[in-house]
Amino acid sequence: EGLMEFYGSFQELFEFFCRNTTIHGTVRLVCSGSARSRRAFWTLLLLASLAMLYWQFALMFSQFWAYPVVLTMSMHSEPKMFPAVTVCNLDPYRFELVREHLEQLDRMAEESLTFLYGSSSSSARGFRGKEHNGNGNGNGNGNLSSSGFQLSHNFSLIRMAELRAGRRRSSVGFRLCNSTGGNCFYKTYSSGLDAILEWYRFHYMNIMAQLPWVINISQHEEHEEDMVYSCQYDGEPCRPSDFVHFHHPVFGTCYTFNSKGTDPFWTATKPGIPYGLSLLLRARQRAQLPLLSPLAGLRVLIHRHNQTPFLEHEGFDIRPGIATTISIRQDEVNRLGGNYGKCTTDGADVAVELLYNNSYTLQACLHSCFQQLMLRECGCGYYYYPLPAGARHCDYNRQPGWGHCFYQLYSRLRNHHLDCFQQCPKPCR
Asked: Which residues cross the membrane (predicted)?
């Protein structure tokens, strides 16, 4: 009945509300009367409560706008397509078209080693490899010695001493300048072996840039039976259509087995060694270009189908004379893309024009981006990467400062200072 009474003033109504309300905080600040300590306590308690409230709101909104992903893992036992396998013999071929220039480079390497370490190499065949019969024109393509290309002696190896942390340290390297010669730096290495390998590789790229871009590799290299003695999959012999032959300028003769991944013959139905790929390979070290590929054995890379094998970044080496068993496990990652991260399905939405004819990979995009930077800033293309139509590989007879430009660009790429890492997203799968 008291609740239905009418109060004479607003103050009486407010006092009744303060005596009977169950709301804390704001009302207590007003209804505490003259008790300052109680009002101060309720003021602090209210501010702390508001701070906790807004903090919780901030956590919930930040978690919502971060688009969290729930990771689920599952294991399936079902038939799968066997992956692509690339095998190289680590024996780069000495093309007859540039044989004279490569022999001259071998002599320059011997002279550099003698100058640096004072020991003359009496076994020239260790650099030159096996001898060739004939006049160098047996393939019908002639020799490029008359093209006007000359090996440059402006990139000689030198030994330098520098102070680091109060100690005098020795390094070996060669000097690189821009096209005008006004900006120079030294490409140095603490190891003399690393320096001579990189120096040889630099000259080798300039020599190989003289070769025609389209060349029939089968006229120069051995047939597959010279390297692949035996090939079996799941107990059945491989067919000639099951592998693709190509040449790598550093890793030599290469074969990719099951490159497309569409033949039911390569379906893996059972786990275990007897049901996988069995290869008997011949690994020869003919010592043709030992400073370009100082290893002996085989280079193996297991990768996805329709994917360019980047042997210089991935894979592993197997020494000859042993039996090696390799077990594989496939981890499949599906990225959501969109607001959850940057990825691409097939590379069609990537601004970089891919120079490889296979499916999109992050490494293919980075190589294509770097090659386009080389063409724009250096005026020529890097030898180990494909070229777009109308472009030419770098050659210090035509572009004297391309080495200076390349090594600076490559250093920026390794330090992630190029926009290629922003332009090339990871594949969504």
From this structure: 44-67
